[in-house]
Amino acid sequence: MTIPAIDKALDFEYCGDIQASFDQKMAGLEVQINALYELMPFGAYSIASDGTCVSINNQALLWIGCSRESILGNKRPAEKAAAANWRKLMHHANQLRRGGLEEIELDLIDANDQVRPIGLHAKHLEVPGISTETGEIDRFVFFDLTEVKRAKELQRISAIAFKSQMGICIADNHGLVLETNKAFGRITGYSSEELRGKSAAPMLSLEENGPLAAVIWSALTSKGLWEGEIRERRKNGQIFTGWLSISSISDKDDGASHFVICLYDITANKATQDEISQLAYFDSLTQLPNRRKLNRRLSEILSDSPSDDLHGALLFIDLDNFKSINDTRGHASGDLLLIEVGRRLRNAVRGSDIVARVGGDEFVVLLSALVADPVEATHQATVVGKEILARLAKPYKLDGFIFNCSASIGISLFSHADLEADVLQQADMAMYQAKRTGRNSLCIFDPAMKEAVSAYSNLEQELAQATQRNELELFFQPQCDFDGRIVSAEVLLRWRHPTRGLIGPKDFITLAEESGLILPIGLWVLREACKHIKAWDADASMKNIQIAINVSAGQFKQPGFVDEVIHVIVESGINPARIKFELTESMMHSIDETRVKMEKIRELGVRFSLDDFGTGYSSLSSLIQLPLEQLKIDQSFVSNMLSRPGDQIVVKTIIGMAHSLGLEVIAEGLETESQKDFLHLHGCSLYQGYLFSPALPADEFFAFVQMRDH
Ligand code: C2E
Ligand code: MG
Ligand code: MG
Question: Which of 145, 179, 290, 389 has the smallest count of CB within 10 Å of its CB?
Fold first, then answer.
């Protein structure tokens, strides 16, 4: 029996036929596969075991960057860049073969020099029993991984973003929560589990947010995004301020598919912002609005409506003797005073009126909604101004001591037609007028003041030229003992103005101090006084008269003051002991600096007197420290001491104090014999005043001394 199959198998001819038909089929298959590969969006190639490229599809040629002719049947393409790509492919293909791994990633450089991440999928195509001339064929396919990589990167970034400090909530197109991150839980107090599947909308349901949900919804549908500030309630009931940003993620056709809700807790930022605005618009000492805030408010009021009706009044308030508390008690006490002034002002006006601190000791009260009638409105503002003056004039109990302080007020009434800068300037002008007419008073701006101010500035220019034009002149007022002997004289400055006549120092010394002209003028006075002393040296009755010269605080403070003074005195060749400088209590604040300066001048032989004593706040300890020779009782006490027991006490105390400190004491402003008798009785033996003589021009003073002496 024969087995047909075996018979057939043993038939070589038959076998040869099978082989031929198999090869044919395989070749056909190969053609089909290759045709298929040509259509596929991945690269494919096959290489024989000797490394020759057997087949390659279009996509592979494109990515590798070579032509089919240059690679097919070759071991590498002719193109240089493509050869590098091919080398990489071969290298990885060998790795794949060896390690049995099927996939590997590598970067190819495409024709535009762009890096293309490629996934190489290797397939070793083994066809048993068939061996080509070049041996076995390995077939490889590779894919462009650019998009896959980008998607992976995005996923990675999203994962990191999800871990961020910003609360993130993803909701579906119905607003139902799908996922929230940890930060969202930290901010709201709700965990992801608690929120999942629930509506995200109640987050905006707080009443304070008003119709926000509707606004958000309309923004999302029109722009796909809404962001803004919201008020939120945490799980524990606490309300916080959040910054919310909602964006919709849309499907190509079907509108929103998801919502991404980002939430940031800005409660702390808000607090910082509030603090910044507090610092920018409020005075940190009194907590009152500052100048900037006042200007804003004023310009708002003025631009409110274009009507010309009177609208309000601005009261510019300046404390009269603030400097002296600062100088004598220190800045801490000054601060306490300012706080108290702010409090009194606030209590003196309505809640709708504004009280601002606009400078060191300058305050502004802005009265709004006054009556339209100008006369009545002026009356209303005056009533408030007087009330303020009365409140501010009451004694201040600060840090254990009592302090008296008054204020000067300038009032400017304004309408909508006015400019902000004008209103303030006018009130300021009126305030200066109030100061000039005597302190603790108020003054209402009227246009004539503008002229007065410009006259003042003209005066300043004229004063600047007064020394060159020889218009300044020294007058001398005798200082006598009980018997009327002239022991010394005070130099008092006069200005012989070409058109206004003789002007007293009260009308220009402040101007000189404010403008800085006091420095050259002060030096001129000293030089001139030295000249007179020198000239009078030849006269027996004059040569022992000491000359007292006033020194302003502004002069004394100058760094070069000591050197200049010494230089002028030495240069003049006079005996420095003939000079006595009159200082005021306002110089006592920087006691160490004052002492050092005084001591240097004292070394030369010049003496010092403390002028207007009793009006300032010098402490006993500061008096002890300074090289003083004399205290000069202020004329205000002298003129009232016989009628006012309080002043009498002050005078007696000053005399007693001067004696116990070993200081000489002189009284100024003496007009009557009874004043002299009273002072003498209580131990003051030097006097200056109209009782003896007013201040006289140099030649008249000379004649006066001669007459007295004989
Ligand atoms: P002071 O130093 O307190 O001068 C005394 C003032 O009282 C002088 O006014 C004088 O004329 C005035 N007086 C003198 N006796 C009487 C009197 O019996 N009754 C009244 N009612 N007044 C009397 P004056 O000359 O107008 O000077 C005013 C102030 O100007 C001075 O006050 C002084 O502080 C300042 N001053 C004057 N000359 C100079 C100067 O050369 N340099 C500086 N820095 N200040 C000066
Ligand atoms: Mg004086
Ligand atoms: Mg005086």
Answer: 179
Q: Do 115 and 144 have their domain in common?
A: yes
Give the amino acid at 583.
L
Is residue 157 in a domain?
A: no
| Ligand with smallest separation from the Cα of 634 | 3
Model pLDDT, residue 488: 97
pLDDT (mean) for 433-439: 80
Q: Is the CB of 668 under 6 A from ligand 1?
A: yes
Contact indicator for 170, 259 with CB cutoff of 8 Å: yes
- In sequence order, the β-bridge partners of residue 262 are 168, 245
34: in domain:
no
CA 689 to ligand 3 centroid distance, Å: 11
Distance 2 CA to ligand 2 centre (A): 156
Q: How confident is the model at residue 307 (pLDDT cuts 50, 70, 90)?
A: low
451 lies in some domain: no
User: Which of residues 515 and 335 earns the better pLDDT score?
Assistant: 335
Shared domain check, 416 and 517 = no
Distance 646 CA to ligand 2 centre (A): 23
**pLDDT tens for residues 526-552?**
999 999 999 999 999 999 999 999 999
User: How many A from CA of 480 to the centre of ligand 1?
Assistant: 16
Q: Do 211 and 328 fall into the same domain?
A: no
Same structural domain for residues 13 and 59? no
Q: Kindly report, residue by residue over 592-622, the tens digit of the pLDDT.
A: 889 999 999 999 999 999 999 887 767 777 8
Q: Is residue 323 in some structural domain? A: yes
Question: Which residue's alpha carbon is nearest to atom 24 within ligand 1?
Answer: 505
pLDDT in tens, 580-590: 999 988 777 67
Q: How far is the CA of 598 from the centre of ligand 3 (A)?
A: 19
What pairs with residue 249 in β-bridges?
258
pTM over 0.85: no
Atom 27 in ligand 1: residue holding the nearest Cα: 505
What atom in ligand 1 is closest to the CA of residue 492? Answer: 38
Counted domains in the chain: 5
Rounded Cα distance, 588 and 358, in Å: 27
Same domain, 624 and 695: yes
Nearest alpha carbon, ligand 1 atom 17: 669
- Per-residue pLDDT of 638-680, as tens digits, reads 999 999 999 999 999 999 999 999 999 999 999 999 999 999 9
Q: Which residue has the tokens 């579906």?
A: 172
Whether residue 483 is predicted with pLDDT greater than 90 in this model: the reply is yes
Which range of residues forms the domain containing residue 182? Answer: 163-271
What's the rounded Cα separation, in Å, for the pair 263 and 265?
7
Alpha-carbon distance of 378 to 606, in angstroms, equals 54
Whether residue 4 has pLDDT greater than 50: no
* 230 and 363 both lie in a single domain: no
By most ligand atoms within 8 Å of CB, the mutation choice from 479, 492, 693 for ligand 1 is 492
Q: Does the C-beta of 489 come closer than 6 Å to ligand 1? A: no
Please report, for the domain that includes residue 399, its CATH number.
Answer: 3.30.70.270
| DSSP class per residue in 209-274 | GTTHHHHHHHHHHHHSEEEEEEEEE-TTS-EEEEEEEEEEEEETTTEEEEEEEEEEE-HHHHHHHH
Confidence of residue 358 (pLDDT cuts 50, 70, 90): very high
Tell whether 500 and 579 lie within a shared domain. yes
Q: Any idea what the CATH number is for the domain that residue 645 is in? A: 3.20.20.450
- Give CA–CA dist 330/271, Å, rounded: 34
Domain match, 583 and 687 both:
yes
CB-based neighbours (< 5 A) of ligand 2, an ion:
550, 582, 611
